[in-house]
Amino acid sequence: MKTLKNKSPFPRLDEFLHRLVAPHLREEIMGDLHERYQRRTQRLGEPNARQRYWRDALTYVRWSNIKRKPNPYPTTYIYSPTMLRNYFKIAFRNLLKHKGYSFVNIFGLATGMAVAMLIGLWVWDELSFNKSHKNYDRIAQVWQFVNFDGTISSYNSVPIPMAEELRSKYPDFQATSLSTYTRDVILAAGDKKLTKSGNYVQPAFVDMMSFKMLAGSADGLKDVHTIFLSESVAKAFFGTENPLNKIIRMGNKTDVKVTGVYEDLPYNSAFRDVLFLAPWELFVANDAYVKRVLDEWDENSFQVFAQLKEGPSAEAVSAKIKDIRMKRKDPPGYKPAFFLHPMEQWHLYTDFKDGKNAGGIVYFVWLFGAIGVFVLLLACINFMNLSTARSEKRAKEVGIRKSVGSVRGQLIFQFLSESFVITLIAFVLALLFAQLTLPFFNEIADKRVSILWANPWFWLFGLGFSLLTGLIAGSYPALYLSSFQPIKVLKGTFKASRFTSVPRKVLVVFQFTVSVTLIIGIITVFRQIQHAKDRPSGYERSSLVEINMNTPELYAHYEALRNDLLNTGAVVEFAESGGSITNQYGGTTNISWKGKTPNTQPLFMGNQVTHDFGKTVGWKVIEGRDFSRKFSTDSSAMIINEAALKLMGFKNPIGEIVRSGKEYKVIGVIKNMIRQSPFEPVNAAFYTINYNAVNTISFKLAPQLGTSKALDKVAGVFKKYNPEAPFEYSFVDEVYGRKFSDEERIGKLAAFFALLAILISCLGLFGLASFIAEQRIKEIGIRKVLGASVAGLWQMLSKDFALLVLIACFISAPISYYLLNDWLQHYEYRTELSWWVFVAAGLGAIAIALLTVSYQAIRAALMNPIKSLKTE
Amino acid sequence: MRRSDLGEFEEVVLLTVAVLAPHAYSVSIAEELEQETGQTVSTGAVHAALQRLEQKGYVTSLLGEATAERGGRRKRLFTVTALGGRVLNDVRQVRNRLWERIVPQVTLKWS
Questions:
Q1: Which of A370, A431, A723, A757 sees the fewest Cβ atoms within 10 Å?
Q2: Residues A518, A371: Cα–Cα separation, whole Å
């Protein structure tokens, strides 16, 4: 009969008609057509018959033939409420029945999501830095590249005349403002005295940075003796009283009137420490040095902020202002090239290398973003692995459901809804975890982020991601299981294909690759920190205390103050210096010596100290001698550090003459002292005696007296000399420790995330191991009956997993080597990547994995074979 | 009597079903009509008319035997119901009455 059917003159037309016509009419219609054709062929010949076939066929195209006969049986409603309720009921029953598995699944996923949320919030915060300033995209700070003997450094300090120059000669600027660096000043109102940080700025600054005025007007800084307070400071001083027109005494010296109060700046603003604003004119009036350098183009000690007009880009304007200094008279040897650093880059792009922007914190944004994605991926992999592994157990359920009339769509929907339920529970848990860990996270990350409850993007991302995870994880059981033939599954002839476990293995390898890489990463970060900490600092930091000389009362009593302090017995040494030992300012290129290569401009750090400074900080003299009062010539003596000695190239430095302003005789060489970043080489520095250019008191506490008791005594002396100011001091070792804070913060965060990544990976492994042990329970029973030992069974069950982790270690080694080598290149002073780190991380990962798996393996191996073999 | 719902083509098809009974099905009807009228009649048109007639209850159908020239498909055979027969009768009587009232001269003139 098939051959007859094939005789159709127009198979295509037949096919079309076959589809078009309702099934119950197909037989008669097609039959009629063909019979007529046959008859016509006999009677009229084939060509004629063919032609008429067409016409006949088309006469069947009418609605009454196309219309389908209604089905007399009720259809299955895929979305009937009863079935939906049943799906959820079954989903919850399944969760409750396999509590361990559900815990691993939900907890792992929730942890991953929580980590991703925290990192997401962190990244969001980093990216939105400074965005609270209204003119965000048009504000810039003037920086300069300077060239010291071929090395190009960048500074955000510029000379005072720069502001006026930009304002008057360059029409691209809408406003400019000079500003000091944020500095601590003692503010006093009535009896209250508080040390607060703030800037001295020009009036344009307030509008430029869009300070929100809560009281007073934005141009209130036009008078010299005025001050703006931040809301919190105003509250601290005046409580609920109106702060306007109140008098505040600054630095125990000048009385100023409060003419404005502004809203505190958010924590993610560059000016978050600016708690007061005072007029630039006031700063000039009170500082002899500033008065002297008002028109000096080579005194780079101030900040200039600028707001561009709509239109010109910071880059274009940078090109215009680049050579401002070089075009003037007497261009300096360090060849300053000015440029604008736009506000968008202030936070994330602050590193410069060879006159080009070299990123900065943005590096960590990428790093942590990647870690977040990976941790989340690990959690998703767990979820997928476990749900696919588990789902084969449910083949029988599928068989029965199909037998009683379930259609495939229903089964797909059921499995998908189950995985959605799990991901949504995990999402809610993740929100909870994130909320609970936020305070802790904020503390290590030095952030003030909170969950963006009101941000639609947050919800869109969160829920969208949960749904996506649910879809991906649920799609395998949904599509694969629902395709089973019920008869095969129920008869028991169904067997999962051998290769279903391959993707699972690949995913486990991926998980451990990430985990091992993270372990190697954190070991290296901490080694790098330790490496820098172990570096000899060149001075004694313990019990060394510093006091900032921020009131005039502290000056000009050197001998008296020193003697009084020593007499208390609480202090063993006392000195003053220009600047803290933990910091280094005041570079100069104005220095020359015998044998200096002409026309070079190396940078030297000049330091002014008193005679006792060396003994107080405990520097190590390696050649010559320390300053001494016994030699009156020491007023023009100089002590240099090793770096300076190397740069100057003296064979025999003692007695050499060095010119810097005046002539100095080198009397000693000291070991390098780490005053700047402990990750960078120490700059060449020299020390000279000057009792007038000091601003910091440092003293060493007597060790036998106990810190708090000693400090009490010291406080008494300071009260006598400086009754108006609060006694504020800092411990040098604490300040020194803060030099590592960035690295330590990164290390802690990375450790935190790595720990979670490993935890998640192990959770997954744990779940998989229990699944495999369960699957092979009969095999294990038979093996035991035949005499297998527990150790042998343990080995059998653990071997596969150990192998996967081993593969992961081999993959992660080159990846982590590449990444970390790259990271270490950022540091001048760095640890090396030793092979044992890789071995240790690998062995650690294998040990952890084996421990996880062994619990399940040993449990399975110890099981009584009667139990496992008796059933059925 | 719902005679108005019997179209002219339907009437002819119904008549042919009566003539060809019990071997009336689309193809045979179409061929019969082609022979009688000398015009091409498509099975599609006949099929549609038969469907309508069946809906109205003038014919009933059952599936007949399969033949080779139909590609092994069965044919749907139609027979006139009692109602169909009555309708045919009615139509015929109306026509007869009218014919009888025509004046003889007129009839002559036509032929």
A1: A723
A2: 9
- Stretch among A249-253, A438-442, A493-497, B88-92 having the lowest mean pLDDT: A493-497
Query: How many independent structural domains does chain A possess?
Result: 4
| Minimal Cβ distance to A59: which of B27, B44, B75 | B44
What is the pLDDT averaged over residues A82-110?
87
Q: What is the ipTM of this complex?
A: 0.88
- A vs B, Cβ pairs < 8 A, gives 75
* Strand duo A254-262 + A226-230: pairing: parallel
pTM given for the model? 0.73
* Chain B residues near residue A54 by CB distance under 8 angstroms: none
> Is the domain of A527 the same as that of A552?
no
Question: What's the domain range around A734?
Answer: 544-738
- List the single best residue of B29, B70, B78 to mutate versus A (max A Cβ within 10 A): B70
Q: A827 and A710: one domain? A: no
pLDDT for res A6: 47
Residue A763's pLDDT is 87
Residue from A218, A216, A252 nearest A234 by CA: A216
Residue A193 and residue A187 in contact, taking contact as beta carbons nearer than 8 Å: yes
**Alpha-carbon Rg for chain A in angstroms:** 40
Task: Please report, for chain B, the start and end positions of each structural domain, with discontinuous segments joined by +.
Answer: 3-110
**Beta-carbon-side half-sphere exposure of residue B15 (alpha carbons within 13 Å):** 15
State mean pLDDT over A594-611. 85
Of A705, A738, A771, the last residue of a domain is A738
Same domain, A614 and A726: yes
Chain B interface disruption, residue of A17, A24, A27, A51, most B CBs within 10 A: A27
**Chain B CB contacts of A10 below 8 Å:** none
pLDDT for A328-376, tens place per residue?
A: 888 887 888 999 999 988 888 888 887 788 877 888 888 888 888 888 8
Q: Based on the domain organization, do A287 and A209 belong to the same domain?
A: yes
Q: Is residue A714 domain-resident?
A: yes
Task: Tell me which of A346, A378, A399 is where a domain ends.
Answer: A346
If you classify domain B3-110 with CATH, what class do you get? mainly alpha
The SS3 call for residue A833 is coil
Of B43, B63, B68, the CB nearest to A32: B43
* Interchain CB contact of B51 with A (< 8 Å): yes
Closest-CA distance, B81 to chain A, in angstroms, reads 21
